[in-house]
Amino acid sequence: MTDSVNNQKRRDFIKGTSVAAVGAGAMAFPMISTAQTVSMRFQSTWPQKDIFHEYAVDFADKVNSMTGGRLKIEVLPAGSVVKAFDLLDAVSKGTLDGGHGVIAYWYGKNAAVALWGSGPSFGMDANMLLAWHKYGGGKELLDEIYGDLKMDVVSFMSGPMPTQPLGWFKKPVTKAEDLKGLKFRTVGLSVDMFTKMGVAVNALPGGEIVPAMDRGLLDAAEFNNASSDRLLGFPDVSKVCMLQSFHQSSEQFEIMFNKTKYNKLPAEIKAIIANAAEASSADMSWKAVDRYSKDYAEMQSKDGVKFFKTPDSILKAQLKAWDEVTKEKSAANPMFKKVFESQRAFAARAAKWQADTSVDFKMAQAFYAQKK
């Protein structure tokens, strides 16, 4: 066999191998569908300057980037299209394509939804409640609730919030009796809990709280965290903030889409959305540590705010009131009881595991604080 024949055979073999490799590669890496850019108009339930609105924009930016511009989400602040408490209906009807808020705002439709964040959650923190939602049956229960309500939405829970303060007051509260008769802002099942404690509750969206306090329509109020509270102007109307509370110690955000429009998206875009919600959840929790701690320090050093720990007697009174409220709600609302018992079962092992295994970080913090 001549060299020229051998060379031709080698060339034919290499060519065949290359074609086979390309074919195998095409099978291993299918072409991602390309389509015209889909635009979606979102609205948050937050004022534009609030860090919560920033979290909504962060989610949209992640989706827009990961889809390569095939899906473009524009996020508008609260009130741009509808009022904050009307977001769920607007998304369901298609007036908006989606939104970012908290599920406690839909409390008036079914009190069970407020269990995603209101109350002590059987000792689970917000991240553990998200674990219940994803792995303990919470997502399926929420889908059932929205189905019963005829809400045409797809929901993603995201972003574990740190424990919220009891709130802003004219002077420190030292016992549960100090709360009685106060005109106080809160939302969700916290309304029932504080009402049970003798508080005169008014549920207002975030952007309306400080103006109401300034006009004397509220004696005290809670919203969420150091950054939001500072940006909303709480230090301008109060210099006393009580830290620690069970009223919303395990809350998280909800990202929602109009289901009809969502279902028209390609499978890979839906996967990007789901993963972006989880990525945003982690990113939000990290950003919160950085920003909240800065604003917490600056409110003390620059704004003259005094922070006080909520007395244990008030925390115990909250637990007692919560127990009474949830018994009443469970008796009157089968879905409430179903969600409540699902959380209880998950927490029976998860909260015990965390309590048994978590070290006391306050000990380490105090040790190094005195080393300064």
Automatic annotation (TrEMBL):
Q: Which UniProt keywords apply?
A: Membrane, Signal, Transmembrane, Transmembrane helix
Q: Please give one Pfam family short name.
A: UCR_Fe-S_N
Whether Protein biosynthesis counts among this entry's keywords is no
CDD domains tied to this protein: PBP2_TRAP_ketoacid_lactate_like
Q: PROSITE patterns from the entry?
A: TAT
Signal as a keyword of this entry, yes or no, is yes
Q: Any transmembrane segments, and where?
A: 12-32
**What residue stretches are annotated with the Ubiquitinol-cytochrome C reductase Fe-S subunit TAT signal domain?**
5-33
Q: Which family does it belong to?
A: Belongs to the Rieske iron-sulfur protein family.
> What is the protein's name according to its record?
TRAP transporter substrate-binding protein
Q: State the organism of origin.
A: Limnobacter parvus
